[in-house]
Inverse folding.
């Protein structure tokens, strides 16, 4: 018997629908719109759960879905889901507790919505979770300690919220964590204690005020991108970070780092972008950084263009405040604006396996209108991918899917 249930598709000409079948069963549904749809969220989820009872991957992006997330449908009739992406909609309210029953879930991507409240403590019970991305919502409060139990977690992105406080020290137990993005929140004042396997760490635009010289980062050999910009970090900067073997991007602009950088410090061959601007460094710019890919304006450096540095009186006062004798300088360098130049690193780590399913190739089908049922047969409106499913889902594919 063929299911007689049908679902009305969004009618926007820019809507794309992709179905993926495996062993004559639809296991993936991807629908992407342009946020001009007029859908009933509850009815839409009810229909999807009735027509596609065996979904492993559900991606509903930019469909203007609004209101609370219909968690009972997901938990009761779609509990086989492993990947759920509902980015760029208008969902609001708290993340419902019913999602804690989805024990097979590996990836949750709820970016660019209007979710509020705390990051739920029960997320720590989703032991298979490898990707958790709640960026650009309105979460507040502190981070729950329970997330430290997610030993399989590889990507944690909570950027663009109103979260505060220190990162729990138990997060150092996340030994598989590779990407941590906490930018644009209110975290602080202490630098987080994390495991050394990180590839990407972004803490920019928070309220970190303590120094980082007390933290041993020598063992972060795999770290590729480090962004500490637009905080109030102070004290000396550990310049051994310049020589971390995998580091390619470093941004510490817009802080209050002080002291001299060693002129003999070595820079990693991978280091291609460095932003030291708008701090309080004195002395000479290290030789390995005297190249175009380094931004150093708004400091008190002596072997660079003085018009790009703070004026002599400012540097003299700053040097006295930290008990450093400044180099002799002549002339009055013009005082530059203290506006911080933001350099955003879009960090995509290719090839990182984070669980779930992926398709060999992507087919986006433009659908103007139509209905579809639950079988694997193609229709004039929808093409169906009849392909084997890969046991890998890369960070790049996840990032592309959430755009």
């Amino acid at each position: 018997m063929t299911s007689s249930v049908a679902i009305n598709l969004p009618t926007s000409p820019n809507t794309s629908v992709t179905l993926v079948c495996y062993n004559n069963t639809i296991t993936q549904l991807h629908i992407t719109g342009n946020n001009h749809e007029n859908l009933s969220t509850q009815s839409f989820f009810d229909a999807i759960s009735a027509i596609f009872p065996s979904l492993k991957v559900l991606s509903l992006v930019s469909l203007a879905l609004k209101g609370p997330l219909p968690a009972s449908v997901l938990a009761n009739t779609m509990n086989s889901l492993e990947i759920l992406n509902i980015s760029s909609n208008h969902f609001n309210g708290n993340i419902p507790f019913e999602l804690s029953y989805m024990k097979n879930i590996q990836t949750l991507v709820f970016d660019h919505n209007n979710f509020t409240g705390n990051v739920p403590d029960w997320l720590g019970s989703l032991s298979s979770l490898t990707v958790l991305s709640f960026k650009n919502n309105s979460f507040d409060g502190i981070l729950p300690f329970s997330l430290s139990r997610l030993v399989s977690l590889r990507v944690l992105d909570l950027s663009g919220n109103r979260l505060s406080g220190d990162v729990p020290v138990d997060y150092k137990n996340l030994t598989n964590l590779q990407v941590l993005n906490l930018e644009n929140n209110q975290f602080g004042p202490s630098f987080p204690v994390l495991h050394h396997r990180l590839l990407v760490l972004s803490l920019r635009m928070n309220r970190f005020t303590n120094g980082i010289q007390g933290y041993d980062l020598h063992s972060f050999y795999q770290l590729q991108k480090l962004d500490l910009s637009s905080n109030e970090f102070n004290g000396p900067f550990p310049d051994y970070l310049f020589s971390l073997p995998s580091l390619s991007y470093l941004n510490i602009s817009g802080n209050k780092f002080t002291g001299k950088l060693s002129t003999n410090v070595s820079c990693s061959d991978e280091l291609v972008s460095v932003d030291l601007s708008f701090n309080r460094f004195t002395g000479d710019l290290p030789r390995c950084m005297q190249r175009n890919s380094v931004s150093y304006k708004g400091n008190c450096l002596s072997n660079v263009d003085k018009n790009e540095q703070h004026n002599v009186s400012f540097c003299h006062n700053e040097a006295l405040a930290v008990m450093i004798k400044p180099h002799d300088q002549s002339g009055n360098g013009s005082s530059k604006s203290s506006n911080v130049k933001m350099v955003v690193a879009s960090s995509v780590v290719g090839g990182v396996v984070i669980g779930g399913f992926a398709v060999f190739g992507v087919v986006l089908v433009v659908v103007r209108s139509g209905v579809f049922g639950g079988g694997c047969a193609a229709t004039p409106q929808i093409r169906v991918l009849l392909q084997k499913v890969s046991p890998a889902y890369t960070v790049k594919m996840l990032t592309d899917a959430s755009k």
User: Anything to note?
Assistant: The domain at 200-346 is CATH 3.80.10.10 (Leucine-rich repeat, LRR (right-handed beta-alpha superhelix)).
